[in-house]
Structures are given as structure tokens and as C-alpha cells.
Design goal:
Length: 525
Amino acid sequence: MTKSVLIVGGGTAGWMTASYLAKVFPKLRITVLESDIIPTIGVGEATFSTIKVFFDFLGLPESEWMPHCNATYKLAIKFANWGPEPGHFYHPFQRYATIDGFNAGEWWLRLKPGQQFDRSCFVTPALCEAKLSPCFLDGRVFDEKVQDLFADPRRKASVLSEHKEQYPYGYHFDAALFAKYLRDYATKLGVKQILDDVINVELADDGSIDHVIGKISERVSADLFVDCTGFRGLLLNEALQEPFISFKDSLLNDRAVALRVPSTPDTDEIEPFTTATTMSAGWTWNIPLYNRIGTGYVYSSQFITPEMAESELRNHVGSRAENCSANHIKMRIGRSRNSWVKNCIGIGLTSGFVEPLESTGIFFIQHNIEELVAHFPGENIDPDVVASFNRIVGSCIDGVRDFLVLHFKGSGRNDTPFWKAVKQTPLPDHLEERFQLWRKRLPNAKSIDSRYHGFEYYSYSVMMLGLGSAPTEYLPTLAQRDPTNAILSFNQVNEQSQKLVSTLPSHREYIMQLYSTAPHSERHK
């Protein structure tokens, strides 16, 4: 059995890995060797709803960890000005209802009940528009199906593969504070921390990693090494020379500029969603935390300079951007050909990264960690086990890449050199075929990539409808169906939306109550 693991690099990836492994393998010797001078990237502050599985597995209630991390709730992503006309739509953490064997998206095309598709099919957009919390003040979740799941520990998912019910929300949090919180959690479980900078990686005769040498530490060895050194890939890409597969032919954006915009939680409303707004050469994110707003511009360096991008971002943010320093980031978009080589596993940015349009950075970390546990080596590292890990991880990242390509290809924007170039970017054959089909038939469970990548068919359908690329005609079979139950379902969504808007507390009100139980010293960091 593998007895020791050395995680090189801290941050979100390193300490999520350390925390999870320490919980699963209490006898495993785990060490995190991290530099105290390398800053975190800081763009991974928004999450999938699946991160709830991670916190539940570690036994961390929201009232405990959220105040430490200036965290807020995320009900959806608001896509602004991605369609053919100015406007917005929401990609929610909520599945379509099924009515007489067909999903609500299909019925919406048939009936066009008078509201935009997202408002007609889901209650979440109404909550977002009203800036409401996903929970009542007594802690109950607005979705009764999920409330039962939350309340019964025997039914809670412990890994992503058991995530059968769609949680209605994810989170926004400060990635640096999150890493510090998990560091404290992990070290209490026995994880050892070494503050040092690696200056050399020594290989064994068989090409595996034997040990690393730090400026202070003479020699640090382990049975298994986890590379969490970010875009550099110090162990996996540099020492073991594993090739990196770029996605630049499919995704043009390769840089970002970010601002930390202050806010006042005592008075400012807190939006319960991430916003992605199109710009001249890419798009901006807006992530509302408890005491600040994380915002940034993801762009293609082929079409705009860093100085111009920063200027455009500041104009977009307005007066709040004054006195905010900018952080310019070069992004490595793509994935390592293999995330597990010899006795080294890449997790986080080392493994792979796509622009954070759908908040997938932390999801990739969680997925790799769970797959590492599922493929954890015994006495020896089995090549077949390694190949299985690499196949699952690689296909997950590739699947997300294809989903993001859909956002750009399907967008109604075509008014700048960047957006024109996006439309001319060739698609892989498999994706071109699917995209052409989805213009004629809404995506369904059988027409999307069946390999696990975190997105279900409803997400594809939502994007096609919101982007203005959905079919103009409904399924012919629905013309022969009685629409009574579908009309009733749309009316129920409208009624439930109105009821929740009148009864749920505001996002800010619920967050302030949640934070009131935490010592003041644990906030405003």
C-alpha cells in the first residue's frame, strides 16, 4: 500500500487534495510542500453545485466554513448580451421538469407561453432577479426534494457519481481564504506543511520521481507525488516532460485581467449568481463575495492588448474600479496529455484548465481528487489503473472544452473581429455534427457527450435557447399531443416563483444571519 504522499504546491488544489486524502486515508503520511511567496491565481472563486458533495464528505457545515471564506451563494450563471439582441438569460442549477415524456424545454418551443424560456421552465431566474437566498431563515432549502436530501445523512451523496439530485446552488468564495481554511482543517488531521521552494526534482532510474530538493529542505521523498504547481507543472510537465495539449484551436481566449472591487455588506445587496458579460474581445466575470466583488476580463491576446483590456474592464465596472489594482494573468488553456505519469499526478491547473466561463476550475480539482481515490495505488502502480485514470480525467476536460465552444459558436454576437473569428473557428468533426443537430433538435441525453464532464443535457439545451441558436420549430410529435399538462406545469412554475419571491429572505439578509454566528475576526479578511 502506498504509505506517503507529497503534494507540491498549496493553494486551492493542494489543500483540497490534502484535506480529502487525510479524511479518506487517516494512516497515510501526507505532506504539503508549498512556497510562501507564490500567489494564487484567484479566478476560481465560483463553483458548481457539486462542491456541496465535497463539503458534506469532509463534514463541514456552511455555518462553519462560509464565514471564514467570505462566501456567498450561487444559484445560476447570468449570461448578459450573448444572444443576437441585448439582454440576459440564466443557466440555473435546476433540471427541466418532464411532462408526458418530454422535457419542459421541448414543450416551451411548442407553446411559447409568453415568458422567456428560463423564466417559464425554472423558478431560479425569479429568485436571481429578486436577489434572494436559496434558503429560508430557518435553514430550509427552497427546493423541497433537495431539502429532504440535505436533512437525511444516509441519502447524501458522498462522491460525484452519487450526485443524483441536482443541488439548487453552488458558492462564491475567496480562493485564498478557502485554501487557508482547508490548510487548518488538514493539519488538524495530521497533514504536515513545509514552507519551501523546490529547486530541483530528482528522478529514479525508472524515470519516476525519487525526491525533491528545496532551498531549505535537503531532500523530501514520498511514494506518490501530487503536482499542484499550477500552470508551471513543475513535476509533471517540467521534470517528467509530459506534453501539454493546447486548446487554442478551439478556445481563443488566453489571458485575463482581474480586479478586486470593494463592496459594503452592511448596505449593498449581494447578487446570488455569477455574471458573464460579453466584451469586444472576450467576456467579463462578476463574482459577488461577502465583502468584495471579484471581476475580470477573459480575452484573446490576438485581438486586444493587456492595456486595452484593462481599460475596457475599468470602463465596464465604472467608478467602483477606481483605486483597484489590476492583476494580469496569462492562462494555459488545455490539458496535460496524461495527468498521471509514473508516480506523479497532476491536480488543478497542472492537469488542465479552460477559461472559467462555467466555473469549472474547482470542479476539475474535485473530480481529479475523487478519481485519484478511486484509482489509488496499492503496493505497486498498475499501468492499467493509471490508464483508466487518465482516460476519465482527459475525457472530462475535453467534454467541458466542447461545451464552452458551444457558448461561443452559438452566440449571436458577430460585431467585432474577435466574435467574427470565433464564428470562423473550425469545430472538430464530432462537435460540428452535434452542433448542426442541436440547431434542429434541442440537445437531449443521447445527443450530448455521454462521458462524464459535469454537464447534463439540460445545460446544453439552456445554452442553445439562450444564445438564440435553438431550433425554430418544435418536435413534430408534440403537435399531436394534448398540451394541457404542459400548460399546467408552466403555470405551476410561475405560481411557485411568485410564492418564493414573497417568502424567501434576501440573499444579503440570509448571509448576514449566517455570519452573525461566526466571530467577527473570521470575516473581512
